[in-house]
């Protein structure tokens, strides 16, 4: 059994029966490599077939999004727009699949935050969104982990707040009015790691009290 067949055999888990069930449907392109950073949007698990690296020999044409519909129990391969290989991170924005740059990627200052959003799932219609931050923002690279319930896109730096201020700045971007607002959070303890993430809280089957 090859690696892809092993993946398919373990992809469906029943919460009620607490057991795995084999799925006998073969995806459209069984030779695709399994990437990472998968995400579930609207009952569909989606992941990139590869992770992007600057020295990678793969071309944009080799890279796709592989999707598995949990209800229909079928696979789908979604094509990517040109130049998409530099946007390897998948996130959810208002119920839509979206992709952004890797948070560890260094970008020049005043470069817009760029996203690709899959608004037309049936026809693979990707929409480009470029968010220009104010010029007076002195910042490390800004990236997103998704959107809040109001539909605004969550933006933040991937570095801990300065020791001198313990001030964390978070930005919310509204796509309809193209407006940007800033939230300042103070008094946070410094994390142990070099990088930090900010996520939108989503109700889960597991209580946060048990973590």
- Rounded to the nearest angstrom, the distance between the terminal CA atoms is 36 Å
Question: How do the helices and strands follow one another from N- to C-terminus?
Answer: HEEEEEEEEEEEEEE
Number of helices: 1
Strand ordering within the main sheet: 3-4-5-6
Q: How large a portion of the residues is in β-strands, by DSSP E?
A: 35-45%
Number of domains: 2
Briefly note the structural class of the backbone: mainly beta
> What does the main sheet amount to?
4 strands, antiparallel
Q: How many beta-strand elements?
A: 14
- Helix share of residues? under 10%
Low-confidence stretches: 1-11, 51-58
Question: Oligomeric state of the chains?
Answer: single chain
InterPro entries: F-box-assoc_dom_typ3, F-box-assoc_interact_dom
Protein name: F-box associated beta-propeller type 3 domain-containing protein
Pfam family, one: FBA_3
